[in-house]
Amino acid sequence: MARVLTAAVFVPSPPLLVPELNGLAANETDELRSAALAAVSEIGDCTDWVVVGTGRAVERIAATASGTFRGYGADVRVGLGPDATGEADPELALPALIAGWLRGRAAPGVRAEVHVVPVDAGRDECTGLGQRLRAELDEGDKRRGLLVIADGAATLTAKAPGAFDARAEAVETDLAAALAAGDPSALAALDPDLCAGIVLDGRAAWQVLAGAFTTAPSAVKIVYRGAPYGVGYHVGTWRP
User: Fold this and answer.
1) What is the separation, in whole angstroms, between the first and last Cα of the chain?
2) Pairing label, strands 144-149, 48-55
3) What digits encode the pLDDT tens for the residues 99-153?
4) In angstroms, rounded to a whole number, what is the distance separating the alpha carbons of residues 171 and 72?
5) How far apart are CA 223 and CA 236, in angstroms?
6) What is the DSSP annotation of 25-50?
7) Domains annotated on the chain, with CATH
8) Which helix (H) or strand (E) holds 197?
9) pTM
10) Considering 72, 74, 105, 213, which has the largest number of Cβ atoms within 10 A of its Cβ?
């Protein structure tokens, strides 16, 4: 089997990545935005991205889709590929919007297919999807990249979207350690009930990443870790 997966890149999902949605506060997220764009540029020479994020229900969104951030405060339009057609969908899933925005700025020639996983998907469901996606990524002779769009806990401070939860810091520390160590088994071990309790909605996507790496990555690079607005964000790259 050809090993054509170039790298797996992980970035967060906040609309605040988009400067037009931040207004005067846009400079507060400059570091995060720059890190995310730098990370996805590492798979910018791929022909295709397989994108994984979380949402309310299972979705598979084709690279011909286009959308707009209008529902988040500004009519910033994005496409998932150079052949994206039709009206910009204001209901397009947030991971697809983020992927389209990053693609448009770092890799406009890439075609991105998005898989949305329910936030409450079971561990086995998530790792199983990761394994299937990895098999697809390693087929053929195209250079492909895996883009995981996932946040950490949203309960790290009193002003966080989920308010403060004393359990969140320890889980967030474990998540950061697993990503930095390239430890898929530690990601797979994240407890779904605990993660739901601390609003770590990216848990399902992190466990898809775990399933895509049945063995540890050969190289890991972490370019950002922080918690602006009380939400844990991580940006980095795992290479097969």
Assistant:
1) 14
2) parallel
3) 999 999 999 999 999 999 999 999 999 999 999 999 999 987 889 999 999 999 9
4) 29
5) 5
6) GGGGGHHHHHHHHHHHGGGTT-SEEE
7) 5-239 (3.40.830.10)
8) helix 192-197
9) 0.96
10) 213
